[in-house]
Write a structure and sequence with these properties.
The chain has about 130 residues and is mainly beta. Helices cover about 5% and strands about 50% of the residues. The strands form 2 sheets. Strands 2, 4, 5, 6, 9, 10 and 11 form a 7-stranded mixed sheet that branches. The protein has a 4-stranded antiparallel sheet with strand order 1-3-8-7, with no helix packed on it. Strand 7 (about 70-75) and strand 8 (about 80-85) form a beta hairpin. The longest helix is centred in the C-terminal third of the chain and has 5 residues, at about 105-110.
């Protein structure tokens, strides 16, 4: 059974950093893709960053490229999202999500509407004040 538990959200000021953590059980590194998604009130859900397990290739949305870094600590079954230089527009509930990769090992696919993951965590709130 796949279980994803996020932590690390909070309230910060613009320009500060946060690191989100996702404890991923039942997810094998080589067989899954994991991503971070966010949803702000009144906005559609956005695939922020995804990582393809095994090869470790990554995808970042343009809005976070250069500021966010996704990583997978396979030994401890943890996936992280390091968020630097946070902006008020980053305010949202952030979700960790996982999907078996099978033959598609393109992280963009899993962050897009085409590869919507089936396993989701409960979410963690990130609020960035100006």
């Amino acid at each position: 059974e796949v279980q994803l538990v996020e932590s690390g959200g909070g309230l910060v000021q613009a320009g500060e950093s946060l690191r989100l953590s996702c404890a991923a059980s039942g997810v094998s590194f080589d067989a899954y893709a994991i991503g971070w998604f966010r949803q702000a009130p009144g906005k559609e859900r956005e695939g922020v960053s995804c990582i393809s397990g095994g090869q470790g290739s990554t995808y970042y949305a343009d809005s976070v490229k250069g500021r966010f870094t996704i990583s997978w600590d396979n030994a401890n079954n943890m996936v992280y999202l390091q968020m630097n230089n946070l902006k008020p527009e980053d305010t949202a509930v952030y979700y960790c999500a996982a999907e078996p990769q099978f033959q598609i090992r393109n992280p963009y696919y899993y962050c897009s509407i085409y590869g919507t993951p089936r396993h989701w965590g409960q979410g963690t709130q990130v609020t960035v004040s100006s």
